[in-house]
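Morning - iron/sulfur cluster inputs below, output right after.
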Amino acid sequence: MGTPVDYGHKNYNAYGAHLRQKYEGKRVFKIIVDAGFTCPNRDGSKGYGGCTYCNVDSFTPELSRKLPTIREQIEQGMERATKNYAADKFIIYFQPNTNTYAPTHYLKMLYDEALSINTENIVGLSVGTRPDCIDFEKIALLESYADHFDVDLEMGMESIYNETLLKINRGCTHQELERALNLANSTKLDICVHTIFGFPWETHEMMLRYADEINRFAQIKFVKLHHLHIVKGSIMGARYHKEPFNLFTLAEYTDFLADFIPLLRPDIVIQRLFGLADYDLLIAPNWGLKKSEIQSYIDKGLERRGVVQGSRLSIV
Ligand code: SF4
């Protein structure tokens, strides 16, 4: 499993170009690792049922999952990436569920194992988690790797509005994200936040204000922007079946990004402009295109409109 990096030239601060510059043209590839974590918003410690957009199937109790070992996942992932994409360097990406939801000594064991597998070609560690599963000790652990690897801590912001976070059963407030961001301030970690655009009760203007909120935190280096999509096995999916609501068309989402990107600080690297669930899981919106075709549609739309990241800072 893994994510090929796009090396195209863009009018926004694209992740592919960032990696190419940082690693002097080498092809860098993320290797996804499922370490069998659970999620506190499903196991009852923070809530049950999970975020309403989250697919239940992606949550399987730790002990009942038959996962290959971390070593097997990484070695096989690197082999595939090298064969299929001529990858040179690798970032180990702990992605599914909440990858800091365990005692720090256990996390250390997992991260140590992952990073020791191919010390010559592994250049980074990326850890996806919830802001309420971050504390000082975990930040210190992650920072302990930062002298030898680029360490990227990815947290779900999803919305800047607590009303939305409540409606989607996030089990976490925006203030908890602020607290985690403050803990990570002045550390060597690269912080990434993940947002979702298109909750039907949030207006265009409300969504544009995410940019100001992200810009406020100098420690945010990366963003992953997503449009809301509805997947099978989610609470939102069941609701959508009963009562469908408006979701972005690709043209509308491109228009939104064309308004949003100029408001975003130019130093922030955009790791992703949209999300794409597997088509067998996706209910809506189905744009009927492959990932590369969606990327190209959006990029052409942004270019046609003369979009430049940061060109309209703080106009909202
Ligand atoms: S989206 Fe993340 S935080 Fe929310 S229920 Fe799913 S795994 Fe947990």
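Note: Residues 140 and 187 are 9 Å apart (CA to CA).

O.
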